[in-house]
TrEMBL record:
Pfam families: YjbQ (PF01894). It comes from the Archaea. This is Secondary thiamine-phosphate synthase enzyme YjbQ. InterPro entries: UPF0047_YjbQ-like, YjbQ-like_sf.
């Protein structure tokens, strides 16, 4: 199952937990892998708290400078590729009785590094 996420800023976060949960079969127990089909966006499991979400954006901006990368000669978004590389394109979450088995406060956040864009997120559940 896949769904689209529209972002409205160059670097931002979007909570996709509810959409991922809706894609998990009701009777599933196993693992759920969530994958963003783009090289300039990422997924993380983290707390969905507004100040922390701003901190994530600040972290990726501070970790990778906006300019000075070889790929910028091609299309000017090397920083976005590198920021997404640091975070990664996928997360895996256990599933118990059709529910994502998160720890306290955990959510799935899409981290947009080159927006605004429409991103495709794929959800695959493997039942045990």
């Amino acid at each position: 199952m896949a769904f689209d996420v529209r972002t409205d800023e160059r670097t931002t976060t979007v909570d996709v937990t509810d959409r991922v949960s809706a894609a998990v079969p009701e009777d599933a127990s196993g693992v759920c892998t969530v994958f963003v089909e783009h090289t300039t966006a990422a997924l993380v499991v983290q707390e969905d708290e507004p100040r922390l979400r701003r901190d994530i954006v600040s972290f990726v901006r501070d970790a990778v400078p906006d300019e000075g990368h070889a790929h910028d000669e091609l299309d000017g978004n090397a920083d976005s590729h590198l920021r997404a590389t640091v975070l990664g394109p996928s997360v895996t979450v256990p599933v118990r009785d059709g529910e994502l088995a998160f720890g306290t406060w955990q959510s799935i956040l899409l981290v947009e590094c080159d927006g605004p864009r429409t991103r495709t997120v794929t959800v695959t559940t493997v039942d045990r």
